[in-house]
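Exercise 7. Given the encoded structure of a 134-residue chain, write a plausible sequence.
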């Protein structure tokens, strides 16, 4: 198993409902930030990839399990690791954690698409980088 990329996230008032509990859809936002920062830390930015190769990434499917609620002002971590890399897709495992407690975990399948929204091959540089980490 590869070491996950870790992104710290603070829970702000805007992330919560009236009871101070993180609204379920915001876990998706936290996860998106984790995936984006993992790519950025690996030397790739979404705008750069789109400009240089004409392709973008889109979520094809996601399965999420909510276990423990996150609350206002807590410091969380988004842990992201690559599970598999294919010709035109990637699968990642993510967990939103508070310390050692997993609050939510998910698997995400990402597809690579061209500017018309059609399936496209992953850029070789991205595929090569993550192929060695799975």
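Solution.
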């Amino acid at each position: 198993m590869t070491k996950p990329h870790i992104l710290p996230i603070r829970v702000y008032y805007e992330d919560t409902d009236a009871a101070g509990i993180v609204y379920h859809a915001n876990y998706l936002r936290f996860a998106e930030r984790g995936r984006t920062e993992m790519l950025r830390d690996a030397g790739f930015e979404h705008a750069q990839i789109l400009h240089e190769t004409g392709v973008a990434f889109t979520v094809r499917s996601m399965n999420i399990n909510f276990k423990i609620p996150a609350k206002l002002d807590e410091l969380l971590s988004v842990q992201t690791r690559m599970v598999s890399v294919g010709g035109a897709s990637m699968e990642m495992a993510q967990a939103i954690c508070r310390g050692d407690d997993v609050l939510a975990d998910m698997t995400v399948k990402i597809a690579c698409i061209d500017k018309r929204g059609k399936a496209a091959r992953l850029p070789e540089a991205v595929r090569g980088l993550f192929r060695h980490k799975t």
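Remark. The radius of gyration is 15 Å. Students should compare their own answers with the one above.
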